[in-house]
Amino acid sequence: MSNPDETPSTGELPGLTSISALTQAPSISTVVSSPQPPPLNTAPVTSAMPTGTSTPPDYAKLHLTLGTNSLAKSAMSTIPKLNGNEDYINWSDQLIAVLNYCGIEKIITGEWAQPAVTQGDKDSETNAREWKHLDAWISLHLNLSDTVRSQVRHLTTSHAKWAELKKRFKPASATSITLHLTSIVNIRYDESTKFEDFVATKCEHNRLLGELGGNSLPDSYIAILIRSSLRTFETDCRTYPRRHDHHRPTRQCHPLSPTRINHPNHANLSL
Fold this sequence. Notes:
47% helix
């Protein structure tokens, strides 16, 4: 068992300047009177995130269906014109609703990326060509003002235009920015939360902070906040060991083993 009174001699937090794909939580010694048994379920956790390997749709069929849908054109006419920030919410909501009705909203959101063409495979060539037709059809019906259109004229896909317009015009309230910044700084680690989920929450708030127009914090600062929270948690465990009384809830501190974090927003974060 490690000595709980030991502290780094240099006073520095190691590993905060290196960037790697592994995030490792510092080991915390258990302070309960009896050792905790290992977890019964040691099977690896399977990610619930989409793998991107699903079969792409038949874009030729989608294009044909759209062409025979007499209500599609009238539905597109309900999309308001985007002039700037004040119109963005209504414009984006109606655009996605209409494209969802047409069955092609995943093209503009980027979920259906441009399909690759296999040399000599006519089916793949046809599918890629039909995707381009649908993508062009979406771009033609975005209903942008001349000023707004000039800002995305250089972009070649509807998804690229959608992302740029969202970045430029989606309004962000000061309250939302403050909320994410406060969450980054104040969320503390608790043994009821998986360590990887704790890190993921910090990094997701940081991502949203940048997306809303705030200044995202550097990875090194996020790492400092995470390590500081873990040290606070370790101190609490030493100060308030497991007790059964009416004044303080039962608290158990389990060792945190090295954890590989597979999350796009903090894959390069090193503790």
